[in-house]
C-alpha cells in the first residue's frame, strides 16, 4: 500500500521545520505522514483509533525501523450508549472524500462533555503515556478528539517542545447524519473544544488558506507551545 501525507505543501514544510535527527515525535493519527516524519527524526510513535487502518499502516511501514504504531480502538459500547444517532464514519469506519460525513455534524458529539468523549476515546487519548517516554519534542494531533489529545500531551512536553494541531482552520461542510439537511460549521479553531486548548498553549505560528492561498487548500494547522508557568516564590 502506497502512503503519502494527506497535507498541503505549506503544512508539511512547517512541520518539517521542527523535526530534528535527535527528536522523538508522537502522532495522533497515522498514515503517509508517519512515513514522512520518520525520515527526519529519531523515533515516531503513532496512535491510531481505526483498527483496520492501524494494521494496514503497520504493514506498509514494516520496513521503517523507527516507527511504532499504537492501535487504540474506541469503546463502541460507550459510543452507542452516549451517541446513538451519531455517524460511525471517522469513529470506527474509514472516511473517504467525497462521501465523508464527520461526527462533528452531530451536535451531540460536537458539543459533548469531555468526560463523554473520553469514555469513548480514553485509551486513544492516553496512548501517549503508553510509550514510556518522559517527553516529546513534537506532538502532532491529526485525528479524533484533538483538543483532548493536545491537553493530554501537556504532561509530555516542555518549553522546547511543540504541539501541532492539523485542520485548525477547517470549515467542515456536508450532510447532517440521518437528515436531508446541509450544514457548514465554523472553523474548527472556533469550536468550544478547540478554544479551550488556548487556555494552556501559546500560538507560535499558523498555516491558513488565507495566508498561504497557493500552498494550503482548506485545512491549515497551528503550532503551539505550553504557556509558561510562573512559580510563586513566596514574595
Explain what you see:
There is one protein chain. With 235 residues, this protein is an alpha/beta fold. Helices cover 25% and strands 21% of the residues. The protein is built from eight helices and nine strands. Strands 3-2-1-4-5-9-8 form a seven-stranded mixed β-sheet, with helices on both faces. Strands 6-7 form a two-stranded antiparallel ribbon. Helix 2 links the parallel strand 1 and strand 2 (43-48). Helix 4 packs antiparallel against helix 6 (114-125). Mean pLDDT is 88; it is low at 230-235.
Structural class: alpha/beta
Helix percentage range:
25-40%
User: What is the H-and-E element order?
Assistant: HEHEHEHHHEHEEEHEE
* Strand segment count: 9
- C-alpha termini separation: 61 Å
Rounded mean pLDDT is: 88
List the helices and strands and how they pair.
Elements: H1 9-16, E1 24-28, H2 32-38, E2 43-48, H3 51-60, E3 67-71, H4 76-82, H5 107-110, H6 114-125, E4 138-141, H7 146-152, E5 162-166, E6 171-175, E7 182-187, H8 192-195, E8 201-207, E9 221-226
Parallel strand pairs: 1-2, 1-4, 2-3, 4-5
Antiparallel strand pairs: 5-9, 6-7, 8-9
Helix pairs in contact: 4-6
Could you give a short description of this structure?
25% of the residues lie in helices and 21% in strands. By secondary structure, the protein is of the alpha/beta class. The N and C termini lie far apart (61 Å).
Amino acid at each position: 500500500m502506497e502512503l503519502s501525507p494527506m497535507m498541503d505543501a505549506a503544512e508539511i514544510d512547517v512541520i518539517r521545520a521542527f523535526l530534528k535527527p535527535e527528536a522523538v515525535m508522537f502522532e495522533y493519527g497515522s498514515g503517509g505522514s508517519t512515513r514522512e516524519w520518520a525520515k527526519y527524526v529519531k523515533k515516531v510513535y503513532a496512535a491510531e483509533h481505526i483498527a483496520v487502518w492501524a494494521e494496514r499502516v503497520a504493514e506498509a511501514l514494516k520496513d521503517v525501523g523507527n516507527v511504532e504504531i499504537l492501535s487504540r480502538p474506541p469503546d463502541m459500547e460507550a459510543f452507542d450508549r452516549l451517541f446513538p444517532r451519531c455517524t460511525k464514519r471517522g469513529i470506527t469506519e474509514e472516511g473517504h472524500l467525497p462521501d465523508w460525513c464527520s461526527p462533528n455534524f452531530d451536535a451531540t458529539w460536537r458539543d459533548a462533555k469531555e468526560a463523554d468523549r473520553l469514555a469513548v476515546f480514553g485509551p486513544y487519548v492516553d496512548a501517549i503515556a503508553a510509550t514510556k517516554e518522559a517527553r516529546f519534542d513534537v506532538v502532532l494531533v491529526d485525528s479524533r478528539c484533538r483538543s483532548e489529545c493536545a491537553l493530554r500531551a501537556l504532561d509530555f512536553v516542555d518549553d522546547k517542545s511543540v504541539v501541532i494541531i492539523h485542520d485548525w482552520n477547517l470549515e467542515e461542510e456536508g450532510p447532517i447524519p440521518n437528515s436531508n439537511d446541509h450544514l457548514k460549521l465554523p472553523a474548527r479553531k472556533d469550536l468550544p473544544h478547540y478554544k479551550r486548548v488556548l487556555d494552556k498553549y501559546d500560538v507560535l505560528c499558523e498555516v491558513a488558506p488565507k495566508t498561504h492561498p497557493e500552498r494550503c487548500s482548506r485545512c491549515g494547522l497551528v503550532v503551539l507551545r505550553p504557556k509558561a508557568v510562573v512559580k510563586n516564590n513566596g514574595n
